[in-house]
Write a structure and sequence with these properties.
Chain lengths: ~150, ~750
């Protein structure tokens, strides 16, 4: 089937199998491997994207449901030359180790701060509880987001 | 900024410190690609016209194959190859310590998920469908699932024993206990993945998830029946490891398919396949008997340890050795008797995981120490102080004199100095056991505090020729470090840069990952060893290169501009490199170790690190729910080369220890994993993560760059017993098994 969707502001028309996930199409068809595949059942958040304004696991979204959707992936949030504030904050506190969960945390963090620019610590922990990290113990990620939350919005 | 420019060898550098050298919390140079989604992990690799591989695995834990017909799969459009054991060109088995695991089943399957056939097809879905099209029939056999039964039947990979001192020695306090450690999975976020590209001349280049490309290489090329230099293993982007990638998973399969088809082949395990595709932490049964005098000082420790090694050897021999060598923990005791068995069963193979045998022993001996403290009427901290093993003492198990730094008492003091929160459980559903399920009532929640102390060997032991090769190059632009050491996320990339910068005085340092044909082995990224081993190689290579260049150009200083003599630049980097980059490659070895004798005695280890943990938990005793509030730690780090990286290792390691304490376990039924998904294998989330305060205890070691020690494993060792001790303090339940399950608290 043919699906037309907007990803990071760019319109794509892709020929896909209807049963494919949005994650699979992002990674394998649209050349956007930043969203990661770690569990394929919505438990780890490594594939987090913003889908029509909502934070979702792209492994759980069938691409057949993506007609006319507006999707933002990690690649759409910042670049090496112009990092998103969430990316800058995570780099500065050492919140990146292996980096596999990192794009998911960037997307979930950016979504959180777009809705609540000054979240409290427990709000940060709750908002990011759908993203698993196996390396950091979450400490450096929390420090990154607490620092960002303390900045004047 | 202060730097520590004095090496253990006493060679002192005097100069203005270069930015980004040792001691600074520099930001990792792979951070920007990782945070923008541009870093290429093994699962992101791509080649034109590449095929996808997939694996047929056994649905039984023990069976013989009675029929295997691949022709329906081969007949499918888009299927390029289907290989079984009959198609193997070379050695049909692999293994790191013993080559006993079939590359593809030899007609018998010995664990659930054992690979039987591999497929290459034009796309991933076709490959998966082709696997399902293979016709296969089995005769099921009775699986040997109980490791105790296996030991009784003589089905063991290895025995280890310690005999030291007087068996008749006795004490006033006698504590006996049986402990059990469940099967933990490393669960790195990135699953096993890789890409093999044939070179058109019978050879192959491989990029795959690995912790040690050279040991992969040793196991791969005999199975392909090609010359060693026809296989080149390249370090690939790693989504974590924690021991899971110390043994072969898909490497040989990828190379076989690429050579058979003549095309690039990619494989990527999904999470379910990852759970069977890599080794796990050894489950353990531990029977301990401690005798102590009435002050609580240890008189004798006797232990019997059974590790479940699963169906094939992998690193069971070494893990077993570690469990025996560290059965007493960081304590003095003159009389020690340990019998340890690595059971061979039809369970999934076990191997390396962070802590490597010490985790299991630590849970048992730390619980015993708490019970001795109670019997002696002293605090958990005091019992550990009274028995603390320090530099200059003899290891209780091996009798080896500890020659490096070992500031055990200082570690305990530093932990004690961290303020203990006196706040009671908070009446906020997000902060109570069970979380926003709103199941716990604050009035029934009890708080507990627990302590544990651990010791871990650093680097490889027992006579293994442990070395790391590294090459330092000065170029017109700065310097390069070449290594095949694997960066799994821990921050080796920064440590290499920092050491080279400090020694060379050159800020612009790039770390370049070489393949197995370009540089010698760096050894494994495991055993907490790379900071000391590859870091040590970089330090020596850079120091020798600097001295050589100063001699050559009659200079007295080197920096990013070039060579100086009495304040004048006498040769720029361009001039130094007029005939090309200058390089120095070294092979770094740590102090020699020796295999132990038949009684487990000898100078087995190259050094040790100690760590202490204090856990605070809130428990709902009726529901059996636990919230780990905080885990504070003090750890012996030698010298902190990158404090931020070290804190990251400590916090991350602690959470894996918390996971083993309260939630992480692969549950088996007759060898079949019942929970191979992230829905059912529970990993700690952000809401499960305790607050951590960490103190780094710096007492330079006698070897390793600038006195630094490896730090990766200790956080995962004593955090587990500390958390369980805290739950015990809150509930008064015995809790002799990890992970602690709700029923162990509510009904135990």
């Amino acid at each position: 089937m043919i699906v037309t969707l907007t990803v990071n502001g760019e319109t794509h028309t892709a020929s896909v199998a209807g049963w494919e996930s949005l994650l699979s199409v992002l990674r394998n068809e649209l050349g956007l491997p930043g969203s990661k595949d770690a569990c394929e059942q919505g438990e780890c958040g490594s594939c987090s994207v913003i889908f029509d304004g909502s934070l979702v696991c792209s492994c759980l979204v069938m691409v057949a449901d993506c007609e006319a959707a507006d999707v933002t992936t990690v690649e759409g949030l910042g670049s090496a030359d112009e990092l998103h504030p969430v990316q800058q904050a995570m780099l500065s506190t050492g919140a990146v180790q292996c980096g596999f969960c990192t794009p998911g945390f960037v997307v979930a963090g950016a979504h959180l701060f777009s809705e609540n620019p000054n979240p409290e610590t427990d709000e940060i922990r709750e908002a990011l509880s759908g993203n698993l990290c196996r390396c950091t113990g979450y400490g450096a990620i929390l420090r990154a987001f607490e620092g960002l939350a303390a900045e004047p919005s | 900024m202060t730097t520590r420019d004095e090496s253990p060898a006493g060679d002192t550098l005097v100069r203005t410190p270069v930015a980004g050298g040792i001691g600074e919390s520099i930001l990792r140079s792979d951070g920007v690609p990782k945070i923008t989604g541009n870093f290429a992990f093994a699962s992101d690799l791509y080649a034109d016209a590449m095929l996808w591989g997939a694996t047929l695995r056994s649905p039984y834990s023990h069976a013989t194959i009675t029929k295997l017909d691949v022709t329906p799969a081969l007949a499918m459009a888009g299927v390029r190859a289907v290989l079984t054991a009959e198609d193997l060109p070379g050695r049909p088995t692999f293994g790191q310590e013993v080559q006993d695991q079939p590359v593809l089943s030899d007609g018998t399957v010995r664990y659930w998920g054992e690979p039987v056939a591999i497929v290459a097809a034009d796309d991933k879905e076709t490959a998966r469908r082709a696997v399902r099209a293979i016709v296969i029939e089995y005769d099921q056999l009775t699986p040997l699932s109980d490791p105790e039964e296996a030991v009784a039947a003589g089905s063991i990979f290895k025995e280890a024993r310690i005999r030291r001192g007087d068996r008749a020695a006795s004490g006033d306090i006698v504590i006996e206990g049986r402990y059990e450690v469940g099967r933990q999975d490393q669960a790195p976020l990135g699953t096993e993945a890789g890409l093999a590209i044939p070179d058109g001349q019978g050879g192959v280049d491989l990029w795959a998830t690995s912790q040690w490309v050279h040991i992969d290489h040793e196991q791969i090329y005999p199975c392909l029946d090609v010359a060693p230099d026809q296989v080149r293993c390249h370090p690939a982007g790693m989504g974590g490891a924690f021991g899971a990638r110390e043994d072969i998973s898909l490497q040989i399969h990828l190379c076989l398919l690429a050579l058979r088809t003549g095309k690039p082949v990619k494989m990527e395990y999904d999470r379910g396949e990852s759970f069977v595709g890599h080794v796990h932490r050894h489950p353990a049964l531990l029977d301990f008997r401690h005798e102590a005098d009435h002050h609580g000082k240890l008189v004798k420790v006797e232990a019997r340890i059974v590790l479940d090694g699963g169906a094939y050897t992998h690193t069971t021999g070494s893990v077993l050795g570690n469990a025996a060598y560290f059965a007493v923990g960081p304590y003095n005791c003159d009389n020690v008797f340990v019998d340890a068995y690595g059971a061979k069963t039809n369970n999934p193979p076990a191997g390396a995981m962070r802590g490597f045998g010490v985790v299991q022993a630590s849970f048992a001996e730390e619980t015993q120490m708490d019970r001795i403290a109670e019997a002696a009427g002293v605090s958990p901290m005091e019992i550990r102080r009274r028995n603390a093993l320090e530099a200059g003492d003899r290891m209780s198990t091996t009798g080896q004199v500890i020659t490096g730094s070992l500031p055990t008492l200082e570690v305990l003091d530093q932990l004690d100095a961290i303020p203990l929160p006196d706040n009671a459980p908070v009446d906020d559903p997000r902060l109570l056991p069970g979380g926003t399920g709103l199941t716990s009532d604050v009035d029934s929640v009890r708080r507990g505090v627990g302590y544990a102390l651990s010791i871990k060997n650093l680097a490889f032991s027992a006579g293994f020729d442990d070395y790391a090769d590294a090459r330092v190059v000065v170029t017109e632009a700065g310097a390069e470090v070449h290594t095949a050491a694997i960066e799994v996320g821990q921050g080796l990339i920064s440590v290499c840069q920092q050491i080279a910068r400090t020694v060379l005085g050159i800020e612009n340092v790039a770390v370049i990952w070489d393949n197995t044909s370009q540089i010698g082995s760096a050894g494994s990224t495991s055993a907490s060893r790379q900071t000391q081993m590859t870091g040590g190689a970089v330090e020596v290579a850079a120091r020798e290169l600097r001295e050589r260049l100063l001699d050559q150009f009659d200079g007295d200083e080197l920096d990013g501009q070039g060579i100086w003599h009495r304040g004048e630049l006498v040769a720029s980097l361009e001039e130094i490199c007029s005939k090309g980059p200058v390089s120095n490659e070294v092979r770094f070895r740590h102090p020699e170790t020796f295999a132990s004798d038949e009684n487990g005695q000898g100078d087995v280890h190259a050094g040790y690190g100690v760590a202490a943990h204090r856990a605070v938990v809130d428990v709902d005793p009726e529901l059996g729910l636990v919230r780990v509030v905080r885990v504070d730690t003090a750890q012996d780090v030698g010298v902190a080369l990158n404090p931020m990286s070290i804190i990251g290792q400590l916090e991350g390691g602690i959470l894996q220890g918390v996971g083993l304490a309260v939630m992480e376990e692969l549950v088996l039924d007759k060898g079949v994993i019942r929970n191979p998904t992230f829905t059912d294998y529970l990993l700690p989330t952000f809401l499960d993560a305790p607050a951590v305060e960490a103190r780094l205890v710096e007492e330079p070691n006698d070897w390793g760059p600038f006195g630094a020690k490896g730090v990766g494993e200790p956080p995962t060792i004593s955090s587990t017993p500390a958390v369980v001790a805290a739950i015990r303090a809150a509930t008064n339940k015995p809790l002799t098994r990890v992970p602690v399950r709700p029923q162990d608290i509510a009904l135990g």
